[in-house]
């Protein structure tokens, strides 16, 4: 139990709901639940978790753009780091506030800016072509393992510069834990932590060491930033850890969400297939329609009112990103329609404000390149069985997805 005063339900001046965002049954299809939450009120209170909740685009945008009031240094999950010990050392870019945040963010931001990552494009394109060639030769395969996992585990891990050995065993298992830890300490969290503790956590620490990184990768460049005095020496491995925590499971799940969306909306794939230059725009609609990140938290630093609801200090506020991206107040009456011709920019998939995803341009680069390679050669996708969800407390993706593809 936390020793921070929670407002008694009497004192909460917002509708109270016993909605549990972390149930398997909710994760299977959260969207009808999100609609109810959006209709309930701009601010509600999650009685099971003693946290406020926001499900509309406008309020989420406002909260994420006010880091002085809604801080990250108390953790961006349900756990309040002021009273609960996190499962690992806090991230020095995610779980920090200004002014500390600006320094680490500047280094990582530079590393992942278009000018830097555009150099990766030729290698990323070559690998996507080779992968799509192999998949076409097979005809049917598991889209999760053979495509959505295979690609980032190859190209992103290579870009960071970690060894190939151990990637498939540990990298996604580690990220799974990172993202489960943004939710409650439920069974899912406990089982995942036990798994991560049997190798993944140690492996990650090891591959973040300078001597285990290729000399020309993104990881090595963080050590060079430390050499130049832009980071303390002990901060370099912490930021390599950030790249490996945030950069794999998310892109894997985004690719999963793309494949499942196109398999279920063949008319939308026909548009991309007819015009592969639409790939980047189509990816943006995937990110809106099936957000990878569904929920995370901020913590109030003072008394504040949101949409007329007073909140005390040290209150957790859950932002339902996956709901903001379906809010008809922002997207109109067609919010629930997957439409690659829509202007999907302004979606919240990468968050917004000072903590907006630092890796979003490399994530889009990977997604665009994979969708382009597929658009050129694949006429259609067919699901050959029910996709199996990968349940996680904050990100949405799949464990398996049997598909067949027809060559163009
Ligand atoms: C955005 C994000 C997600 C997960 C982990 C981290 C960052 C990190 O800094 O470790």
List keywords for this structure.
binds 3-methylbenzoic acid; 408 residues; alpha+beta
How many individual β-strands? 13
Instruction: Tell me what portion of residues adopts beta-strand conformation.
Output: 5-15%
Distance between the termini: 58 Å
Helix and strand run: EHHEEHEHHHEHHHHHHHHEEEEHHHEEEE
Helix content: 40-55%
Ions and ligands: 3-methylbenzoic acid
Explain what this protein looks like in three dimensions.
- 48% of the residues lie in helices and 12% in strands.
- The relative contact order is 0.18.
- The protein is an alpha+beta fold and 408 residues long.
- The site of 3-methylbenzoic acid (OVV) has 8 residues, from helix 11.
Summarize the structure.
It is built from 17 helices and 13 strands. It has helices at 24-28, 31-40, 57-64, 100-111, 114-117, 121-138, 143-160, 167-180, 187-207, 218-227, 235-246, 249-264, 266-274, 279-289, 321-324, 328-331, 360-377; strands at 16-17, 44-46, 51-54, 70-71, 140-142, 295-300, 304-306, 309-311, 316-320, 378-383, 388-390, 397-400, 402-407.
């Amino acid at each position: 139990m936390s020793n921070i005063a929670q407002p008694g339900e009497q004192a909460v001046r917002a509708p109270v709901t016993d909605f549990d965002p972390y149930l398997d049954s909710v994760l299977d299809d959260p969207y009808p639940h999100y609609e109810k939450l959006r209709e309930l009120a701009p601010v509600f209170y999650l009685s099971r978790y003693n946290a406020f909740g926001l499900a509309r685009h406008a309020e989420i945008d406002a909260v994420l753009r006010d880091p002085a009031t809604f801080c990250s240094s108390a953790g961006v999950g349900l756990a309040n780091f002021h009273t609960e010990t996190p499962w690992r050392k806090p991230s020095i870019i995610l779980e920090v506030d200004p002014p500390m945040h600006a320094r680490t963010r500047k280094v990582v931001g530079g590393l992942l800016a278009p000018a830097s990552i555009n150099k990766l494009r030729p290698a990323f394109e070559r690998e996507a072509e080779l992968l799509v060639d192999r998949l076409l030769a097979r005809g049917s395969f598991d889209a999760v393992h053979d495509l959505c996992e295979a690609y980032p585990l190859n190209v992103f891990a290579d870009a960071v510069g970690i060894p190939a050995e151990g990637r498939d065993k540990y990298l996604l298992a580690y990220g799974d834990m990172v993202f489960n830890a943004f939710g409650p300490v439920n069974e899912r969290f406990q089982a995942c932590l036990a798994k991560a503790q049997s190798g993944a956590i140690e492996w990650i620490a090891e591959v973040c060491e300078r001597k285990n990184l290729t000399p020309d990768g993104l990881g090595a460049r963080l050590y060079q930033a430390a050499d130049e005095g832009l980071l303390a020496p002990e901060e370099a491995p912490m930021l390599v850890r950030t790249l490996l925590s945030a950069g794999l499971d998310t892109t894997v799940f985004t690719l999963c969400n793309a494949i499942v969306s196109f398999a279920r909306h063949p008319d939308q794939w026909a548009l991309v297939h007819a015009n592969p230059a639409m790939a980047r725009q189509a990816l943006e609609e995937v990110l809106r329609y099936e957000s990878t990140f569904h929920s995370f938290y901020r913590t109030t630093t003072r008394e504040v009112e949101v949409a007329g609801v007073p909140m005390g200090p040290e209150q957790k506020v859950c932002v339902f990103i996956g709901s903001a991206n379906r809010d008809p107040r922002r997207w109109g009456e067609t919010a629930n329609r997957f439409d690659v011709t829509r202007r999907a920019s302004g979606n919240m998939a990468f968050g917004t404000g000072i903590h907006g995803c630092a890796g979003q341009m490399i994530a889009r680069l990977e997604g665009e390149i994979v969708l382009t390679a597929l658009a050129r050669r694949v006429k259609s996708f067919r699901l050959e069985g029910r996709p199996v969800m990968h349940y996680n407390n904050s990100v949405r993706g799949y464990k398996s997805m049997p598909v067949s593809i027809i060559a163009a």
